[in-house]
Amino acid sequence: MKINKLSVESFRQFYDPQEVKFAAESKNVTLIIGANGAGKTGIFRAMIYGLYGHQSLQQDDSDSKVHLVNFKRLQENTGRPVSAKVSLEFENEGKTYQLVREIAEVMQGEKIQELGEKVSLLSQNESGETILSLNNAKDVAEFISSILPEEVRNFFFFDAENLQLLNDLSGKSSFVQIKQNIQDLLQISTLSRGAKVLHQLYTIQMNDISNQSGDPEIKKLSQLISDDKDTIKELKSQNDVNQKAISAANSEIDDLNKQLADNKRLQDEKKDIDAQEQIKNTALEAKKSILKNMTVDLEPFSAILSRDIFDKTLVQVKDMREKQRDVFAKQVLQQSLQNGKCMMCGNDLGKDPQAQKHVQQLLDNYHSSELSGILDLIEGANDRISEDYKRLPDKMNSNYQYLVSNVDKVQKAQTSIDKKMDLVSSNLEKINNLIDKEDHTLPKLKQDIQDKQFLITKNNAKIAQLVENLANNQKDRDTKIKKQNQLDVKRQIAEKTNHLETRLRQILNDYDSNARKELAHQVRVLFNQLVTGQDQHLIRQITISDNYDMQIIGDNGANLLNDISEGQKQVLSLAFIFALAKLASKGRKSEIDFPLFVDTPFARLDSQIRDHIIKETPKLSSQWVLLLTDTEYTNREKQSFVESNAVGTSYQLQKNNDGKTEIQVTSLI
Questions:
Q1: Of 585, 642, 632, nearest to 609 (Cα)?
Q2: From residue 413, how far is each of 50, 146, 410, 564 by CA, in Å?
Q3: Contact, 582 vs 496, CB < 8 A?
Q4: 93, exposed or middle or buried, with CB in 10 Å at 0-12, 13-18, 19+?
Q5: Are the C-beta atoms of 174 and 245 separated by less than 8 Å?
Q6: Counting beta carbons within 10 angstroms of the beta carbon of residue 583, is it exposed (0 to 12), middle (13 to 18) or buried (19 or more)?
Q7: What SS3 class is residue 628?
Q8: pLDDT band at 57 (very low <50, low <70, confident <90, very high)
Q9: pLDDT of 293-340, one tens digit each?
Q10: How would you classify residue 64: left for phi > 0, otherwise alpha for psi between -120 and 50, otherwise beta?
């Protein structure tokens, strides 16, 4: 497929009719340069809309409607329909085609309403006779898909800044779609459909034989065979889904482990901060408790200050005590009755009722002077003060040392926290997220893998048993059919159909396997061709699984897909696209038959890689169209394009003061 010309009218930023002619042959590079908002993506959108009728691109907000008619045109014609028109002229297999799409919209107040679309595809021979004319959207879509399938157009028309190809090829996207797209392009799907047709034919033939046999046993065996095949197909499908889920989980685990490894210092610092916070909080609680205890212990100190007074008073108390009429203290009598034992002689009052009665009488008749109670209080207070005097200083000193120790712990912990927080604070959300993933996401992913591996093993055991049952039932059915001579010929025909299906599936598997090996080999070769010398030994091997997951193996044997830079990923994506195009175009008229249309091609590439890409890409693509920002097209890039001698046409998008964009032919020099 070669794109000759794109024309737009009243489309997006392009108020007036504008045109781009695309370079080809020996000078096959087309440059379209413009500032952001000037209309680069508008041209990209026009290409996609023209070819496939898609109004939205991958980067568009899915919640917002995209309007294609020029806004100024709509405002000038409020209440009246306005049409935007995109025309594409392209060649394929020696024939030239004109594809035209129109979409009409009308502005009512502030609302824009879409009115309808028209599409036409026309091809004429050299004498002007029409050889193809299509006006139905479905017919046009089928024709374009026969050249460049819609499902694979993202390989050749893409925004490099948002390129997700490697994510699609590393188990992070829908593997079913990416696998189907590649197999469609490599025509593997055609073989697969052929095998399915043969399988359906064989099933129909055997069901017909079973019905004609009139033998209920044969019908029963046929039904069992059909059921077992359906069950085997379902179990294999489950295994495919589970295996892909395992691959995706392993890929996610690799990503998480890399993130954890890259941020290990931050995590360690955060964990240390958490530990220091715990130390600080424990010390603060201890400090609070000590201060409370010290406050309680300070209360007796006021009494201790009167200790000298008590020393002098106790001599007088002793004198006064001797002058009291009390022979023994009232407390002695009370305590003796309470304990049942005389506090003076030690006799057991319980065994001597008379003695107990005597003590009770003494207590009843006891007369104590008022002074005795006061003397008791003074002596008791003195005893307490003496005890506090001996105990409290040591206790207060111990508490003070403990208080100082905990205050020191708080200060040291806070100093450590403050020192580490400068590093951690700006990444706190990221660290907490990683810690949560380490504690919860990783274990869950590993458990999911284990669960799905168990299901696969369980399903494989069931499949093995079903395959055995299937073989036995087919053998029994064939034996019974052979006994009916009139059906044996039909059985032999059905067996040939089955044999053809088996052989075709073997061819399919071999072709698919060889295609993946060749694709992986070409990706590595082309990657080395596109990168500069320092990266040419980065990849030791590339493998592509039967689900088209890609692994990039480095010298250490590890998968590098998550470790290479964004620029290297973009180069690897380009290498994959070129390799895919090269493989898909085998047997066609030209070796590489697909254009490469790239928006923002250099955003992730450093200057050295840019120079190398500019030099090598024209050799690998039949047409290379670049939509460049002014930051991607500096004097250095301009010089590289001049040296490549591959630029055929160059355009500048010029946005005027009234908001209209014009496409102006410009020169490299």
A1: 632
A2: 67, 71, 5, 40
A3: no
A4: exposed
A5: no
A6: middle
A7: strand
A8: confident
A9: 777 766 665 555 556 666 666 666 666 666 555 555 667 767 777 788
A10: beta
Query: What are the b/e assignments for 603-619, b being 16+ CB within 10 Å?
Result: bbbeeebbbbbbbbbbe
Task: Identify the bridge partners of residue 130 per DSSP, sorted by sequence position.
Answer: 124
Dihedral angle over CA of 430, 434, 437, 443, nearest 10: 180
**Which sign, positive or negative, has the C-alpha torsion 555, 557, 561, 563?**
negative
Q: State CA 319 to chain mean position distance.
A: 94
pLDDT of residue 5: 96
| In the block, residue with structure tokens 């495919």 | 240
Tokens of 415: 């100093």
Strands (E), 22-110: 29-33, 82-92, 95-108
Instruction: Give helix 428-436 / helix 264-298 axis angle, nearest 10°.
Output: 100
* CA separation for the pair 208, 230 (Å, rounded): 18
DSSP string, 254-288: HHHHHHHHHTHHHHHHHHHHHHHHHHHHHHHHHHH
* Alpha carbon of residue 402 to chain centroid: 51
Q: What is the pTM of this model?
A: 0.62
List the structure tokens of 292.
Answer: 């409370």
- For 173-239, give the DSSP string: S-HHHHHHHHHHHTTHHHHHHHHHHHHHHHHHHHHHHHHHH--HHHHHHHHHHHHHHHHHHHHHHHH
Rounded CA gap, 62 and 554, in Å?
Answer: 38
pLDDT at 312: 61
User: pLDDT, tens digit, for every residue of 534-579?
Assistant: 777 888 888 888 777 778 888 777 777 767 777 888 888 888 888 8
- Local structure of 95: helix, strand or coil: strand
- Token match 């009115």: residue? 115
CB atoms within 10 A of CB 631: 12
Please give the single-letter amino acid code of residue 650: S
Calculate ∠ Cα 554-567-650, nearest 5°: 140
> pLDDT band for position 136 (50/70/90)?
very high
Residue 598 DSSP SS3: strand
> With 0-12 CB in 10 A as exposed, 13-18 as middle and 19+ as buried, what is 444?
exposed
- Nearest CA to 21 out of 7, 35, 38 is that of 7
DSSP H or E run through 315: helix 307-323
pLDDT score recorded for residue 206 = 86
Q: Do 41 and 157 touch, CB atoms closer than 8 A?
A: no
Please compute, for residue 554, the number of CA atoms within 13 A of its CA located in the half-sphere on the CB side.
Answer: 10
As a whole number, the mean pLDDT across the chain is 82
CA distance 246 to 252: 10
| Structural contact between residues 70 and 10, judged by C-beta atoms closer than 8 angstroms | yes
CA 379 to chain centre: 82
> CB-side exposure of 633: number of CA atoms within 13 Å?
21
> β-pairing, 111-124 with 647-655?
unpaired
Query: Are 105 and 112 spatial neighbours (Cβ–Cβ below 8 Å)?
Result: yes
Q: What is residue 174's predicted lDDT score, i.e. its pLDDT? A: 45
pLDDT at 342 over 60: yes
β-strand 647-655 against 661-665: which pairing, if any? antiparallel
Q: Distance of alpha carbon 353 from its chain centroid, rounded? A: 94
State the residue for tokens 């997220």.
433
Quote the CA–CA distance of 428 and 403 in Å, as a whole number: 33
CB 611 within 8 A of CB 640: yes
Q: First CA to last CA across the chain, in angstroms?
A: 30
Helix (H) or strand (E) holding 596: strand 595-599
